[in-house]
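Q: How would the structure tokens look for this protein?
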Amino acid sequence: MNFQQLQCFVTVSETLNFSTAAKRLHLSQPAVSKNIKQLETELSFELFRRSQHEVSLTAAGLEFSKQMANVLILTEQAIIDSREISEQEKASLKIGYTNAMIENKLLPKLLASARHQLANVRLSLRSFDLSTGLSNLQRGVFDLILTTRDTIGANPEVEFVPLHQGHFNVILPIGHRLSDHQILTFSDLENLQLIFFNPLQAPPESAALQNTFIQAPGILHYQTADTVNTAINMVQGGAGLAILPSFAVDTEVSKVTAIPLDYPVVLDYGVAYLRSRTSPSLVAVVKLIETLMGKI
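A: Here is the predicted structure in token form.
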């Protein structure tokens, strides 16, 4: 005796019609008939009288239906209750990200892999402002964030796991006169319109680079953008040249050109989390991220 057999019996006993029962159960009529026949064989008594024109319950079938209808209701409720408990037992982890190009490649793979490899972990994603990652981590808004080491600094509360190293690129419109350079220097960019991050939102290394430009001799023209996507859109529209981390821009998708800037700073990109909130589930997610990053 199995659950589907009982479902078929209770539904046929309610409708007294095999065709109607099959539609309600989303089964074929032969499948319903087979389940009823198997159940009758196991019980060693008939449940229904069948004729060409009608179906009716036998006396034994009527008594069985009185008992089984309640059993079926209790069983379905038990399944619902147990599923809710199972969902509650899943570890829920909130991941913060900044919409960098490297994250657009990583996060879909992370969600897909976690469904199969970390069935007891539920992941949720939310983007954050470049300047708020650490504070959101400390306030519990996120369990871990994808960020650069400079935004964390030498903070003893935070564990930073490096995933990728990058550098600063100059982002130009396709066909710009500097597009054929292998590398660009500060002097190459003199008197050109530049696009910087808003100083209130720029990560420390970006802010330091921007200050280097501002303090350098020569005439400087610049305007600011609040996000990477805004900076790219401004470049595409001919508003200027942006200076962004190499892992922030996919030139093929964005239809721009990226050329390394001659600037001796290495940018460490990785995942950060509070040491005090380390858990087996969090460690498992970090290890999965490390594995996936090795394939990007």
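The chain has three domains: 3-88, 90-165+268-293, 168-265.

DSSP finds eleven helices and twelve strands in the chain.

Upvote if useful.
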